[in-house]
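ok trying again, last paste got cut off:
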Amino acid sequence: MSTAVTSQMVKELREKTGAGLLDCQKALTESKGNMEEAITILRKKGAASAAKKADRATKEGLIESYIHLGGKVGVMIEVNCETDFVARNDDFKAFCKDLCLQIAAASPLYVSRDEVPEAELAKEREIAAAQVQGKPPAAIQKIVEGKLEKVYSTLCLLDQPFVKVPDKTVKDILTEKIAKIGENITIRRFVRFQLGA
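nice, full thing came through this time. structure:
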């Protein structure tokens, strides 16, 4: 049994997801009025549209900074987008500020997994393998890979749980922003300063 899609339902879905009116209406129609299913449809669509935009050049953007209370921690980040119009968008600026807060709080060392030096990964694999000696080789391999995932979520900004929404990673939030704003966004680089470190 399908539920008639009302303008109130479309408005509610739009407020929850930030998606366009027509996209919300289509998702609600497809899900037969089921709000949670419509959100899932929009998230899948957003991830697909973000993947399509991944190859587009990002030459505009913003350099954002943050100094934590007391002046003992500071962050500077470069986030790029396709146009200066988006770079001046309040939603984009807020996202950049949130990334600074994330970096100040969680202390990542790299933006993504491909920046982590192979020597550091080899060292972590060696440590993880030494911790599980005496287990079958297949189990050791799975345990080591599981421990590497934890290392990535500590070292890499994109793999960390997002400070404001801990059940999503920074990469998930970035994908949602790309889908919502409609342009490719890349986190180019960052630096975190800590007094005495």
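cool. Residues 117-154 form one domain. The chain has three domains: 7-53, 60-112+156-194, 117-154.
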